[in-house]
Amino acid sequence: MNTFFDQNGLLNIDEAVMERPSFRKIMDDGIVTDEELMAQSSVVTDLLHKAEKSFNEEQIALTKDLLAEMSVLYAVYYYKELQSLR
After folding, report:
1. Rounded to whole angstroms, how far apart are CA atoms 76 and 2?
2. What are phi and psi of 29, to 5 degrees?
3. pLDDT of amino acid 1
4. N or C: which end of the chain has fewer CB within 10 A?
5. Residue 39, Cα to own-chain centre: how many angstroms?
6. How far apart are the first and last CA of the chain?
7. For residue 12, what is the DSSP state?
8. 43 and 22 in contact (C-beta within 8 Å)?
């Protein structure tokens, strides 16, 4: 069964990201272009629209909360990293 956590109870999203063909393609040359960002943004937007059409209201609310809190985690992790550079 595909879960969010590995056998040690750690979130395995990093591993899932690294395995995504979209990530590999974007990172292949080590440079992220505006065009690649726009294309990935379209992929995400299309998936969100698909979810909206497929999910019930409770699933949409849970997904929105999950995306928002993951974004908070990413943002504060990024700021924490910036603090360590000072």
Report:
1. 27
2. -100, 0
3. 57
4. N
5. 15
6. 43
7. -
8. yes
pTM given for the model: 0.78
Over the stretch 25-82, which tens digit does the pLDDT of each residue have?
999 999 999 999 999 999 999 999 999 999 999 999 999 999 999 999 989 999 999 9
Residues 49 and 58: their CA atoms lie apart, in Å, by 16
Q: Does residue 41 or residue 14 have the better pLDDT?
A: 41
- CA distance linking residue 82 with residue 86, whole number of Å: 7
Contact yes or no for 51/60 (Cβ under 8 A): yes
The one-letter amino acid code at 2 reads N
Give the DSSP letter string of 21-73. Answer: HHHHHHHTTS---HHHHHHHHHHHHHHHHHHHHHS-HHHHHHHHHHHHHHHHH
Q: Which two tokens stand for residue 12?
A: 């395995």
d(CA 46, CA 52): 10
